Amino acid sequence: MRVTVTSWRALGSSVPRIALGLLAAALASVTTFACGRTGLVLLDNDEGPPTLLSDAGSDGPAVDAGSDSGTVDPDILPGHTVKVGDAEVPNDQQIAAGEGHACLRTMKGEVFCWGANELGQLGDGTRTASPNAKKVVGLPSIVRVTAGTHHTCALDVDGTVWCWGGNTQGEMGQGTMGPDPVFKPTKVAMPVVVGISGGGYHTCAHSVQGIAYCWGRNTFGESGAQGEAFVLKAKPVPNLPSVLEISAGWDHTCAILSDRTVRCWGRNQDGQIGNATSGAVEIDPEIAIGVASARALFGGDDHTCALLLDGSMQCWGDDENGELGAGSALFSDKALRVQGMTDAYQGGGGREHSCVATRAGDVFCWGANTGCQLGIGVNCGPQSTIAKVPTQVGAIHDARWVAAGEVFTCAAHKERGAMCWGQNDRGQLGSGKMNDYGDKPGTPSEVLGL
User: Fold this and answer.
1) CATH (domain of 183)
2) Predicted confidence band at 68 (pLDDT cuts at 50, 70, 90)?
3) Is 345 helix (H, G, I), strand (E, B) or coil?
């Protein structure tokens, strides 16, 4: 089912994303629209359903932890594994980024968060921002964490999802929505899952059986439900067989299927669905044309990227600021090859930028640099130039995971700690200070308090 909304593209280019999200929610509540942006790891089995899956998202997509044969993952660090139910996944340090906050999952299964906290997204029981990392209490052993605009969710070793933060559009999956935040981690009632991904105001997860579930805002069909503006409890996404991985963007969602093709649904004003059209809302999952052999995904505000089995990448959607990494385009409604990328392991999409961690531990970013979010240390800030192709972040060579926030970026080290760079007005760099772009704009700095 397709709903044409040609006016949203022009509106989205001039209205701040928070205001646009609230406006969309308000419109959805009084119209019949619903009717008519920083994963876990998957052990894939080509002869049957997936035996495990991973988190992706506006915080940093999931990665396929299995080789194509589904038996060995050459990217798993020796001795670094942890169980989710009966499945075994890499025990990576993993990081997630929301609009103005970030969270790290350590190899001990603990979660630390820092940055913006206006709706309790740090999980410390307050609305006070923190420029230092704080441990989230009340959680069992966690294997993955993901972040949306003002909410955070985590997946524990039993396959249970916990969420905290803003619930203005049903992000908590508790059957309610309203202005009052959920300040402490709260269980989401749903079947056992092995992957999780937070979008703008929605969250999606998937089970070992390959079933995708979403909840939260559905104004643009991003939660996959027909006839509902908000999905207040986790519901299966229809017409989506054998999901290996799911990744939630700002107001669209994509999934890798068992044949390693990609399907997307939700808002499509800039071609982020990848089905050779734009300007419509796709209620049903659509095939992303020209994408095959996908092993991981991430979604930004209005763009999507797939990491392929051979280490290369494809991206599609908005490219006004170079976030597709293809060198030239204003937008593309079909997948384009990311220039020079041959060793991509995991990545994340922000508002107008993309970043990737390679198997070697290096980090590359491209797109807008207005908040110094590319980490290149020069030509950043309001008068910056964009990077249309991947550019290496020179200060990091041991990254295991990268996450792109709205206008900042963070990377988790392989063993301990994390570094962030970009905008820091709400302490999202975790540097102990709140200043525009950190002490050295565009230069990664260590997160304090981990």
Assistant:
1) 2.130.10.30
2) very low
3) strand
Residue 408 is assigned to a structural domain of this protein: no
- Average pLDDT over the chain reads 84
The number of residues making up the chain comes to: 450
- Indicate whether 38 pLDDT > 80: no
* CA gap 325, 182 in Å, rounded: 38
| Beta bridge mates, 130 | 115
**Structural domain contains residue 421:** no
CA distance 215 to 172: 8
> Which burial class, exposed, middle or buried, applies to 358 when counting CB atoms under 10 A from its CB (0-12, 13-18, 19+)?
buried
Domain count, the chain: 1
The structure's pTM equals: 0.85
Q: What is the C-alpha separation between 59 and 61, in angstroms, rounded?
A: 7
Predicted confidence at residue 35, as pLDDT, reads: 30
Relative to beta strand 202-206, strand 195-198 is antiparallel
User: Residue 149 in contact with residue 201, Cβ under 8 Å?
Assistant: yes
Domain, as residue range, for 137: 2-361
Residue 403 CB: number of other CB atoms within 10 A? 36
